[in-house]
Amino acid sequence: MANKSKSALVIGGGIAGIQAALDLADMNIHVHMVEKKPCIGGRMAQLDKTFPTNDCSICILAPKLSECFRHPNITLYTYSEVQKVDGSIGNFSAEILKRARYVKEDECINCGDCAEKCPMRVDDIFDRQLRKRRAIYMYYLQGVPAVMTIDKENCLWFTKEACRICEKVCEREAIDFDQEDEIIQLDNIGSIIVATGYNLIEDINSNVLKEYGYAKYKNVVSALEFERMLSASGPQGGHIKRLSDGEPPKRIAFLQCIGSRSNRGKQYCSSICCMYTTKEAMIAFEHNNELESYVFYIDMRAGGKGFQSFLSRGKAEYHINYIKSKIGHIDIDKNKNPIITYENLDSGEIKQLKVDLVVLATCIIPPKGIEKLAEVLKIELDDYNFIKTPPFFPFETSREGIYTCGCVHEPMDIPNSVAEASSAAGKAAEIIKRG
Amino acid sequence: MSVINFKLRNEVLKHNASLSYCYQCSTCSGACPVALETQGKYNPRKIIEMAILGFIDKIIEEQQSSVWLCSTCQTCVELCPQNVELTEIFILIKNRSFDAGKVPEAFISQGKAILENGIAIPYSRATNSRRESMNLPEIKTAPVEEIQKIMRETKFEEKIPEEKT
Amino acid sequence: MAYDLFLGCVIPARLPFLEASARLVFEKLGIKLNDLEGFSCCPDPTGIELIDHKTWLALGARNLSLCNENRGVMSLCSGCVETLKGVNYSLNKSKEIKDEVNTILQSVNKSYDGKVKVKHFAEVLYENLDKVKENIVKPLEGFKIAAHYGCHYLRPSEIINWDDPLDPVSIDEIIEILGAESINYDLKLECCGNPVEKSDEELSLQMIDNKLCAILKAGANCVALVCPACFQQFDFKQRTLNKEKDSNYNLPIFYLSELIALAFGYEPEDLGFRYHRNRPNDLFKTIGFNT
């Protein structure tokens, strides 16, 4: 053979990264897939259902996760990060930091005995800090690889040289405190795809959330928090309960454009919120047929296939009231019930609506660590810190041979992320197949 | 039938381009304390809407639910996602209203007081004796001629409606 | 440390006791106040500005031209602060406006280049909290104070550039340092309604009624203010409301400087509480504030 077959590097294990990796792997190209979190799945794993079909999110995602894991052409590096990239198109090399999980991946069968006994309680990030996990934990129930991870920063052994109970109870002897971080050198990489997803504006504790009492009022939650509350595998087991008193809400206000389309937050439109809010209101209605939902919006943006009829269904069948009036601030009464003041545009009257729960449709922002990653890859970011792409080739970055797809360069929904992933994979494959 | 006053609208736009940024989201009317109190009869979003459409003459005519009810609390300005400077725009409209002779009496009284005394509340004998009893120093306010000269330069004096008592 | 003192219209003429308490407080803090000579109405940002913006800019710039750039100017009134800061903002934002205003000022042999720093007296106090703390001899125990920030003390934030416009803390922090309790209440950041009085007295009255009601509901026993327009609204209107609306208001209203003066040990008689419409004598007795 003239030269060894080149491989592709996919950074990011969310639906976009997964789709790109599967496409490349099915073309007989070897893929190195690097994911920062202990499991792949990304944001889609955090969703209960997906619009506009209201299909169960994890049901669609899980087969793809399995395929990624078992595919002979995919090498999965989870709990890992790309630290260095050298070279150029057709001939990149990368250095991957594979963090030690302190658990033998080949032995662990995810039985959960260790977690049951672990004495530490840590905020569960997957569940948006709505509940606590242990220091040895499974990132989420259906995660792939189905292997536990020890969080070094909160584990008593690493912080105080005590405990090690997990080691004692593990029947498979899968705990290994002597594991070390590994640096893995990858050469002969033909092309790279960046698909590291997104964060939300509440993750950076933006000022704009203050007027809504987010983090101050218990009955004001963000949309992703509400998604976890709706989820059967979430912190409330699928029973929607107010965080102030555990009561099921009978009236929910969904506020749109929180931190987006605004000079006080981000100026762009977060793209998916109008649709996911309708979805969340529909699912909430399925949990409780007497629920009254009110969506307060500037415009309802429903541009995709089946989207507009989705909204109409929401209005007709799920008793969702759409009120055109953006809300600027929330008051609270002495029983911690939020009060919304809004204008009824038809009558011009100013009205006040008392609700049990407020769900904020918060703005999508670039993921944590994007600046560092851009530096490593030597690609440009735009004014909002999303990956900069040319307007007619949205899968290209500023560097040849490095492609991108999904929310890391622009807020978008799952169908678009998947479409972009396939297009990025096609481009990446071109380079590799060229030889 | 309402007539669009393009000239007046463009004048407002020239002084404050932020008028054109408004996308009528009604964050302002939802946050306005006067709108809540008057149950929507005073409505900042509506005033901006009318200003954008050029119906500024109509705003000036409607004294009752008018732009004069703005309490200048600036909550709308603070919360507006598009940085529309509502209070500044209302000031422009109110200034034009004054030019057209349509202004609540209290404003004219204040203007006249400043024109005649340099300050809005002239000191009476009672004021001075109370100040003395509290060991407060004597205040030397502006020479009235200077203030009057300035108010002549700005043509304020000419604008005061004569017939009002 | 020294500041030029801009008094405005309302305080020296109608509420001189507020001026008195402020002078005593700053004297104790060792901050020298230099009385400006020849100032006019700032002019009123809820009055003249609304009918003639140009006159407002010109008179405001004239006032600022009297001030010493090295010292900076302090005012006891939120309205005056807004005007002076607003004039600075406009002049510094647009050369055209600066030139226009200076042309007008030329007619009275004055000029202004937009460089005088303007501060609200509460800003100065907040910046000298250590000195305030040092001088407290009578902590205000038993005072349950509802802080009313008012509007022009905070907004528009681009011009005022001080405390958080929608979630302020400065006055609450000063109150706590004085040893009093700061009470949270509904409508805390709502406008007192004073500017609306010029256009609709009934509406203005309704707005202050709402505030007083919310404050009493929250269990406060007095109010702290930093603006004389708010002071007139809060102190004077209680009687009007009692007459017209059958209410029974009798809530003592304090200016921030008066509260600090009390904490510094000055006697209530020297602070002119007899000039308040709602005298705090009963409050002092009830909470056992040593008079």
CATH topology group of the largest domain in chain B = Fumarate Reductase Iron-sulfur Protein, Chain B, domain 2
Helical content of chain C (DSSP H or I, runs of 4+): 40-55%
Overall CATH architecture of the largest domain in chain B: Orthogonal Bundle
CATH architecture of the largest domain in chain C: 3-Layer(aba) Sandwich
Distance between the termini of chain C: 31 Å
How much of the sequence of chain B is in beta strands?
Answer: under 5%
- Tell me about the biggest sheet of chain C? 4 strands, parallel
Query: What's the tally of helices of chain C?
Result: 14
Strand percentage of chain C:
5-15%
Report the CATH superfamily of the largest domain in chain B. Alpha-helical ferredoxin
What's the Cα radius of gyration of chain B?
A: 19 Å
Structural class determined from secondary elements of chain C? alpha/beta
Q: Most extensive chain contact?
A: B-C, 60 and 61 residues
Domain module count of chain B: 2
Radius of gyration of chain C: 19 Å
- Mean pLDDT across residues of chain B: 88
Classification by helices and strands of chain B? mainly alpha
Q: What is the H/E string of chain C?
A: EHHEHHEHHEHHEHHEHEHEHH
Question: How are the strands of the biggest sheet of chain C laid out side by side?
Answer: 2-1-3-4
Low-confidence spans of chain C: none
Q: What does this molecule look like?
A:
The complex is a heterotrimer of chains A (435), B (165) and C (291). Chain A has 435 residues and is of the alpha/beta class. Chain A has helices at residues 15-26, 57-70, 113-117, 156-160, 165-169, 223-230, 273-287, 307-317, 370-377, 414-434, and strands at residues 7-11, 30-35, 49-50, 55-56, 74-78, 80-88, 91-98, 122-123, 132-133, 136-137, 149-150, 182-194, 199-200, 220-222, 251-258, 292-297, 320-324, 330-332, 338-343, 350-354, 357-362, 364-365, 402-404. In chain A, the strands form seven sheets. In chain A, strands 1, 2, 5, 6, 7, 12 and 23 form a seven-stranded mixed β-sheet that branches. In chain A, strands 14-21-15-16-17 form a five-stranded parallel β-sheet. Chain A has a three-stranded antiparallel β-sheet with strand order 18-19-20, with no helix packed on it. Chain B has 165 residues and is mostly helical. Chain B has two domains: 6-99, Fumarate Reductase Iron-sulfur Protein, Chain B, domain 2; 105-159, no CATH class. Chain B has eleven helices and no strands. In chain C, the strands form two sheets. Chain C has a four-stranded parallel β-sheet with strand order 2-1-3-4. In chain C, strands 6-5-7-8 form a four-stranded parallel β-sheet, sandwiched between helices. Classes of the chains: A alpha/beta (435), B mainly alpha (165), C alpha/beta (291). At the B-C interface, helix 3, helix 6, helix 7, helix 8 and helix 9 of B face helix 1, helix 2, helix 3, helix 4 and helix 11 of C.
